[in-house]
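Question (not urgent): is this output format expected?
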Amino acid sequence: MKIIDLCGPCRMRRAGEDSGGMANIPGSVATALMDGGKMADPYYRDNEEKILPFFEHDYIFTKDFEVREEDLAHDRVYLSCEGLDTICDITLNGEALAITKNMFVNYRLDVKDRLRVGQNQVEFYFHSPSRFLQQHRVDLGKPFNVIRKAACMFGWDWGIHLPDSGVWKPCYVEAFNLGRLERIDIAQTHANGHVTLDMNVRCESWTDEACKSTAAKTARNTAAAEGTDAKAGGSAADEALMISVSLYAPDGSLLWSKIGDAARETHFVAKVENPQLWWPRGYGEQPLYQVKVFLLAGNQKLDALEKHVGLRTMALNREKDGRGHKYEFVVNDTPVYVKGESLVIHDALIPRSTPERWNRLIDTCVRSNLNCIRVWGGAYYPPDIFYELCDQNGLLVFQDFMFACTFYYP
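Got this back:
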């Protein structure tokens, strides 16, 4: 696996203009305009209304990047965009590549035949969300129910109206040989003092002859660059693809490990005896087990992923009581008195929500004696670091979906 990171400085200009200024990936129109001194702080006095005309225009983010011959020698090469906000035309080296219309999903685009050795250029053309809503008016419901974008960006009782756009999450080119790991899904079954983990590994493999030839060429190019013998130990292209899954205890010790053929065995079952249970804050500790997954071809690691998991049961008790029905969360067969808050957004300027701010937010929740956070359905899904910090600190997450505040048109 090889990654070409596209994060960092890029250029941004208003559509129809030849020049512009600098921006960042991840970043947005608003943060770029503010950093360039072209737009006032939207939080100051009545600037919220004054800056809205900026968002009646389309904007183009342009990123130049270098690709080497050995990068293109991989048999699969993708442009991966973890978040594009929202209606975006993507152009690669002057050719139309894709149109995206959803802020909340990831996009992985096959670009192997579109890239070239040397300089490459990707452009993200963002259409004005304000103009889009003007052109797609609705007679029923909220005006934002025709666009897959954070509802609060169009104003709320607690926040400002800032219909921003941009490459709001990381973007990169990733190259693979023979196969790639997508994710691992883990389900828990608790019974008789042990926990059974059902783990399903989602992966792609493309071990046809053409790909094997490409992988062998990549191995030769890599060996030439490193001054080693490509034949030493055999070629990965000649080996069957295998999946290795390992489970580690909270103290780091190996509990279980297994290797299976990627073509036939992607479901793994591990049993944990005497499990250390995860508890909400105030009810116990938060031990986390670790799962590591590798995609292997011989002794070569083609791809890897890892995941932390707390062993726990969760149920919602809706039994009848004297006043109707309970709404009681039960963790590990213990009713939990929920002390929580509703998470909206850090900042209308999303790129300012850094890992440091997420750490500070969770630390504030811990010091406030909370044990639960509701992720409100009119904003956006927080990054992985939010959920990881909640796991580490004993905070339950009450997760709304992002279309919770009105009905949406298909």
